[in-house]
Fold this protein.
Amino acid sequence: MAKGNGSRGRSGAPRRSGAAKPAAAGRSRAAKPKAKAERPTPPPREEPRDFVLGAIPGATPGKWIGLWRERMPHVALELREISVATQLEALDEVDAALIRLPVEESDDVNVIPLYEEEPVVVMSADSDLTAADELEIADLRGEVVIAAADDVLHLSIPDAVAPAFAPPADTAEAIATVAAGVGVVIVPMSLARAHQRRDVEYRILRDGPRSRVALAWLRERTTPDVEMFVGVVRGRTARSSR
């Protein structure tokens, strides 16, 4: 007897063709769209403007100017030299200024002391005083001590010789006189460096008075830019609060 052509399993029952499996639960449901993240509103764009910083001769604001330009690229910083003799009057023409202390206390002016400078004796490169690494006031007895019209230390040297000529108009002229082999001049170190010449040298005056540099501005002209510069000189980071 002929066998049928139908395919059967081991039990003899017909084999099932591959029936579709039921879809996994949830796969047929449409995926919910993700909510779009809200973009933060950008801060209003600031208009370009200037910040005028006054500075007495010898002041060294380079580091602070560099930080200002990094943090406030839209505010151009203008550096303007002012004289010590008129430094407080100059505050009317600038946003803030680096000045030399002491100054007369006033409720109209904010003052923040910043740093001190060592005094130095500037002398001719041929002077015998160059033999010492540092000097003391006693070492200047018998020397012609020159005080320029813009002298900021006002130091009196016992037994010093008074110059036989009128005071030089400024520190640059006083140092030029010293370079010619006449006398010595005592100034803060920054001024000696600012007027450095090949024919002069300087030595620290160990027991001389230090000169203090401060930041000052008119209280009534306190602006966000002034507060930002105060933060810069005080070492605040860009994310620090004012």
